[in-house]
Write a structure and sequence with these properties.
Distance between the termini: 25 Å
Protein name: Cytochrome P450
GO molecular function, one term: iron ion binding
Pfam family, one: p450
Cofactor: heme
Number of helices: 11
Shape: globular
Organism: Fusarium oxysporum f. sp. conglutinans
CATH topology: Cytochrome p450
Helix content: 40-55%
CATH architecture: Orthogonal Bundle
Number of strands: 6
Strand order of the largest sheet: 1-4
CATH superfamily: Cytochrome P450
Radius of gyration: 22 Å
Strand content: 5-15%
Order of helices and strands: HHHHHHHHEEEEHHEEH
Length: 339
């Protein structure tokens, strides 16, 4: 059930940031949030909706627009889930039990923001969708790389053990300056197999010109992070997981060296959260567990979309490094349960 724990971690972080609550994998409302996120990801696939590629189709009479019933149904379902979350949060705000979070600040500042409830909940929903599956998939890619390429895992553990001792304590954010190799590992996870393989499309709102080429308003642009990440002209031996490539002066700059957080002015606004999520999860997983491929069932590293929330992304053996690490995990779980 490692993949379920992965989901819960990624979603708890973004839910606490946006809505001030943690996630419970047995929570039916969370399952509905997963469903809306999965539908969103499916619709991001190139060619999933022809109207996004051929805008003139939107000029057809509505009764001919074959994609409209599906789109409207998905919109209503998503809106219902988000509005329910907003209602729950407002009740907590009224009785003084709401935790500090982005949504509370947004609602309190709404007098300065021109947005109705429907627009408001889609602001929250966009942040949740952008911050949950991305971290989940990236952490999964790190686990896959740990099972396939053992050399870098050994180096990372030597660094972790030097800082945290022999199962004495878990790595923490305050250790990051003393764990430079782990920061390089984080960047290589994001570079090795981009989780958004075809980029995010952008549309010009006005005519533009670039290097002598003229583009009218309405032109759709995207970039190809997959091709860039696996281009031998950009990275030596790009198919192999090599954190050493990022041990340079840009090590602590999350946006340098890969394209997983986007490009240009439209780079992901939550990149710091994503970077910290992947770093802390990877550090603690490597410190506590061994990862091995299952004989006869190698991990397919070129199938890294891993959209499913109901089954593991790939077969893998995971076991604690030692009994000392088991006791450490038990101790930390007990402390958290009573905190």
């Amino acid at each position: 059930m490692w993949w379920r724990a992965n989901q819960q971690f990624a979603n708890s972080v973004i839910l606490s940031v946006v809505l001030g609550r943690s996630s419970d994998m047995n929570d039916p409302t969370l399952a509905e949030l997963f469903d809306t996120a999965q539908a969103f990801l499916r619709n991001l696939n190139p060619g999933a909706n022809l109207v996004d590629m051929f805008h003139w189709l939107a000029s057809l009479p509505k009764w001919i627009q074959w994609w409209r019933p599906y789109g409207l149904a998905q919109y209503e379902k998503t809106k219902k889930v988000y509005l329910r979350e907003l209602d729950t949060l407002r009740k907590k705000m009224d009785d003084g039990t709401a935790n500090p979070c982005f949504a509370v600040d947004y609602i309190q500042a709404k007098g300065d923001i021109d947005a109705n409830d429907h627009e408001t909940v889609f602001v929250f929903g966009t942040l949740m969708e952008a911050g949950s599956d991305t971290s989940r998939v990236a952490i999964g890619q790190g686990i896959a790389a740990a099972a396939i390429y053992g050399d870098w895992v050994k180096k990372a553990r030597e660094e972790l053990d030097a800082v945290c001792g022999d199962a004495e304590r878990l790595p923490e954010f305050r250790d990051r300056d003393r764990l430079p190799y782990l920061s390089a590992v984080t960047k290589e996870i994001l570079r090795w197999r981009p989780f958004i393989q075809s980029g995010m499309a952008r549309e010009l709102i006005q005519d533009d010109e670039y290097e002598g080429y003229k583009f009218p308003a309405g032109t759709v642009f995207t970039w190809n992070p997959w091709a860039i990440a696996l281009n031998p002209k950009e990275y030596e031996d790009p198919l192999t997981f090599k954190p050493e490539r990022f041990l340079d002066e840009h090590l602590r700059s999350p946006l340098k060296g890969h394209w997983s957080f986007g490009a240009g002015r439209r780079v992901c606004s939550g990149y710091n959260i994503g970077d910290m999520n992947v770093w802390i999860a990877t550090a603690r997983l490597l410190y506590c567990f061994d990862f091995e491929q299952i004989p006869g069932t190698p991990i397919d590293t070129f199938n890294t979309i891993w959209e499913s929330h109901t089954e593991p992304a790939f077969p893998i053996n995971i076991k604690p490094r030692s009994q000392k690490h088991v006791l450490l995990i038990d101790r930390m779980c007990t402390e958290i349960a009573h905190s």
